[in-house]
Amino acid sequence: MSLLIRQLGLQPYESVWQAMRTFTHQRNPDTVDEIWLVEHPPVYTLGLKGNREHILTPSMEIPIVQTDRGGQVTYHGPGQLILYPMLDLKRHRISVRQLVHTLESTVINLLARYGIDAVARADAPGVYVNGSKIASLGLKVRKGASYHGIALNWRMDLRPFAHIHPCGLARQPMTQLCDLLTTCPSRAEIWRHWVEQLVVQLDLPEPTWVTT
Q1: In Å, how far are 3, 24, 102, 128 from 197, measured between CA atoms?
Q2: Is the dihedral of CA 129, 6, 203, 184 positive or negative?
Q3: Which residue of 3, 175, 201, 207 pairs with 132 in a disulfide if CB–CB is 3.0 to 4.6 A?
Q4: Would you please indicate which residues are annotated as catalytic (active-site) residues?
Q5: pLDDT tens for residues 154-190?
Q6: How far apart are alpha carbons 10 and 43 in whole angstroms?
């Protein structure tokens, strides 16, 4: 069974979300797993059971989308790199908890490549550097398959995070990769090393990359 990596570029959140739902609904035991790599225009997304009180000062310029992933509110914008793993968890014998741990671990290992010490927290999913959050995570599992995923702050405008409690964490500081380095790696380099980490850690097949 092969693995397909789709490089989507900058795409509206809602259209990608609906495409993920459709893909998961229509898949069968023989469907090839896919990993979608994407950035979104500015948008706040609220988890299925998210509390709107965590949106402090709504902006008329940035839409709020109630979605079906786990977790609370977060912000997506250009320069934030998002990895959506569309995986048959039953086929790979991966539990939801294992997938969460692995997604966090891929970011931790990726950052270590650049000399950045990052950690996960048992009480708040995601990845943190010196207490500041650099990656946010939210998943949905349906028919034994995953969608939604993990977002890494690469080189973006962090100011919209100030208008929310990121992932429900009051006064949670945010950071991004390119603020922690003197030389910022390209998005292509980050994508390549990040996918390599995921393939190795989950023992996935050698991937085929496509741009759509």
Answers
A1: 14, 23, 9, 18
A2: negative
A3: 175
A4: 167
A5: 999 999 999 999 989 888 999 999 999 999 999 999 9
A6: 12
Q: Was domain 3-211 assigned CATH 3.30.450.20?
A: no
Give 87-136 pLDDT, tens digit per residue. Answer: 999 999 999 999 999 999 999 999 999 999 999 998 899 999 999 999 99
Percent helix, strand, coil in the chain, to 5, is 30, 35, 35
Question: CB under 8 Å, gap of 24 or more: what pairs does 178-183 form?
Answer: 178/154, 180/114, 180/116, 180/129, 181/114, 181/116
Closest CA to 78 of 10, 136, 135: 10
The DSSP code sequence of 33-95 is EEEEEEE-SSEEEE-TT--GGGB-S--TTS-EEE-SSSSSEEEE-TTEEEEEEE-BHHHHT--
State residue 1's pLDDT score.
65
pLDDT in tens, 13-45: 999 999 999 999 999 999 999 999 999 999 999
Residues pairing with 33 in the sheet: 3
Cβ atoms within 10 Å, residue 20? 22
Q: Is the model's pLDDT at 48 over the cut of 90?
A: no
H or E element in which residue 112 lies: helix 96-112
Give the C-alpha separation, 68 to 77, whole Å: 19
pTM over 0.90: yes
Nearest to 117 by CA among 101, 103, 131: 131
